[in-house]
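Side project, low priority. Logging it here so it doesn't get lost.
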Amino acid sequence: MNKRSRVLNLLDTTVEPDYVPAAFFLHFDPDHHRGQPAVDRHLEYFRYTDMDFVKIQYENPFPYLPEIQTPADWVKIPVYGEDFFEGPLGVVAELVEAAKSEALVVMTLYSPFMCAGHTVGREQVTEHIKDNPDQVKKGMEVITASLMTFVKACVRLGIDGFYASTQGGESHRFEDPALFAECVKPYDLALWEEMDRSCVFNILHVCDYHGGYDDLTPFFDYPGHVVNCSLKVGTEMLSGEEIARMFGRPYMGGMDRHGVIVSGSPEEIERATRQVLGDAPDRFILGADCTLPSDIDWDNIRTAISTAHGYRAK
């Protein structure tokens, strides 16, 4: 049984898990963002760490547009066609051809809200939504259309799924939760509808890179075969089992991206990994709460993954 079958078996409730898959992600240096160098580095990392699927990093942010200074300016946001995504799509095509027979190949997808942050500035997006949500939504529709072009092109090239990130619902973002429900979530779900229809393995990533969450309930109805998020919600530390039960699907995570996996000894990493595995749900993928630091020693990652592979599920 290859990695592809083992991970897909995680989604089949008629199959008893006998193996804990694992995967950790990081950004490679700029010399490996495009073309053959990007393909080679992804494959080198995948094989060296022995992770269980290929996850393609997205390194093609939307351009910053300084002329967008007010909510009324959001009508100026352009639609990006498939040519804009030529670089990442080339990497997708090559990695699908190279690795799909042995493992699932998953593409990173930033949400419309996140791409709006690239375009306008992260803090400015939040303020513009507060000031005039109706005008901002005109731009969000355009950004979503551009991302839909990218999603459909990836599907056409044979991608197995997406690691789709959402932001905008963090506890510091909007005092009025209706703004998330009106200006962020519908555009996430428009893309999720296409991914859910077209792909066999999608991961919902509730991203806490810019701030944590007091409440995960706004994400419960997002599609996704697996959920990945921090275990910290408000002041509580939840277990992977609790997260899996809340979302009704397998959980991926457990390891703090700034914790022992970054700076610990092999023995400390193995011990911490075993502790995570002991508290994990039956259907589980070992991983981090978000992207690891780019300068991490790959041997640290390999140690955690090897520990998961040698662990016997409950």
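Brief comment: The first helix runs from residue 3 to 9.
Revisit when time allows.
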